[in-house]
């Protein structure tokens, strides 16, 4: 069971890599976080 805290950590991880990722890649990363948090 994922808590909101887990999502925030995941989001921060992808946001932190914004210097090396394009916006599309960041969007995919956030989408994965949302999907994982919503399915488990």
Automatic annotation (TrEMBL):
Q: Which domain of life is it from?
A: Bacteria
| Entry protein name | Uncharacterized protein
């Amino acid at each position: 069971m994922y808590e909101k805290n887990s999502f925030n950590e995941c989001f921060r991880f992808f946001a932190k890599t914004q210097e090396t990722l394009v916006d599309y890649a960041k969007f995919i990363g956030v989408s994965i976080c949302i999907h994982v948090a919503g399915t488990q």
